[in-house]
Amino acid sequence: MSVILFLIIGGVAGWLAGLIMKGRGFGVLPNMGIGIAGSLIGGFLFSLLGLSSHGLIGSLVTATVGALVLLWVVQKIRSG
């Protein structure tokens, strides 16, 4: 996958996770960071569950799920 496509998927995944978790995105660069970290987390979680994703939509779903998990964990750590 090209680097530019990876960054775009990361940005969209971070934005979607921000919309779901708090009603708005975080900004372009934070969305990319959250989405890229989310893609790594999502890929790890999907492999643990025996799931696989293919193509652009599969990558976006994996990254978004991972970003949601990341934001949920951060929210739990911050709240105590």
Features:
mainly alpha; globular; 84% helix; 80 residues; single chain
Low-confidence stretches: none
Radius of gyration, taken over Cα atoms and rounded to an integer in Å:
12 Å
Largest sheet: none
Number of strands: 0
Family: Belongs to the UPF0410 family.
Subcellular location: Cell membrane
Membrane topology: Multi-pass membrane protein
Keywords: Cell membrane, Membrane, Transmembrane, Transmembrane helix
Quickly describe the structure.
This protein has helices spanning 3-22, 28-49, 55-79.
Give a structural overview:
By secondary structure, the protein is mostly helical. The protein has one domain. Helix content is 84%, strand content 0%. It has three helices and no strands. Helix 1 crosses helix 2, helix 1 (3-22) packs across helix 3 (55-79) and helix 2 (28-49) crosses helix 3. The longest helix is centred in the last third of the chain and has 25 residues, at 55-79. It is globular. The mean pLDDT is 91. The chain crosses the membrane at residues 6-21, 28-49, 55-74.
List the helices and strands and how they pair.
Blueprint: H1 3-22, H2 28-49, H3 55-79
Transmembrane segments: 6-21, 28-49, 55-74
Protein name: GlsB/YeaQ/YmgE family stress response membrane protein
Main location: membrane
